[in-house]
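Recap from last week: sequence in, structure out.
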Amino acid sequence: MIETLLSIAFVVATATQLLYWSFIFSKLAFFSSQKYTRVNKSEPVSVIICAKNEAVNLRRNLESILTQSYPDFELIVVNDHSSDNSLSILLEFQRKYPNLCVLNLQEATSPGKKEALSRGIKAAKFDILLLTDADCMPSSPFWIQEMQNVINQDIEICLGYSPYIHAKGFLNLFIRFEAIYTAIQYLSFSLIGQPYMGVGRNLAYRKGLFFKNKGFQSHQDLASGDDDLFVNAVATNQNTKINLKSEAFIYSSPKESWRGYYRQKSRHLTTGTHYKLVHQMLLGMLSASHFGHYAFGLCLAFFPAYQSLVVACYLARMGVVWCLSARILSELKDKTLVPWIPVLDVAYQFYYLTFAPILLIGKTDQWK
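Predicted structure tokens:
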């Protein structure tokens, strides 16, 4: 009896996975970054960075943004009461680049960076806002051009892609895989008309949209969610597009320790329970079927009569996942992950086990 129930659960989980990959994620696999033709327009852009104790990253990355090949933009850096020498570095850059605006917050702000980001948005001179972080570096001098190129009279949100910098070690390998798997989800769901999140490392939207929807007011009490919860609340099939042109990528520095990675993901994952119900259900079924495919399959493998079924279902799913992932990774310029897909796909089950308690009881109050 138990093996029959396990076999049913295993087949259902595997079939659900195949549906997600074949009918949703395949949209991204066969999406062409050249689909959106260049529009020769150059609306002014306000780039905004919120920084707290980011002196090293500001010195390393700020010039790559300030020297962007774009005719009319400003860079607003909100120094969120840093205790290092961030302010002196910013003032040094400001003397060289007059389009750098520094907002120095000295008084205590609410947990998270929403208040700092809101201050930056209020100070922005232009309607197109392009958000990133201090530890991020554009892949090209045309990052601003490519990101704003998607925004027009109808499209008010551009979901960009932000890969992590390639380094040695399994932690880096897993972080890059997890970031790409997250990107596969939010980019693919946007392509089927269900945009549910973006990443604040590379996200553009109109200032008017921000104020029309009262900014972060609906989730002001949460420390995180300045990017994904805002997009989840305001993005629609009509006002949102993705941008996968490599010139629009912006690279971010990954965490270098498992402890740092755990703290970062714990902070981010607490926002998922505040998504719209339809998105919670779609993402919940995706995670449950992914975990169930391995968990039920492992249990069922102990019954000799079902071992052939386990192998057949595993190979069928992995074949689809591997082939589609290879196409997506080619588009996202990280083919080095392709040989590791089977290993990382299994390792991701430990990600579920590690962070599941966070979704139930976790709550973080700080962004640094």
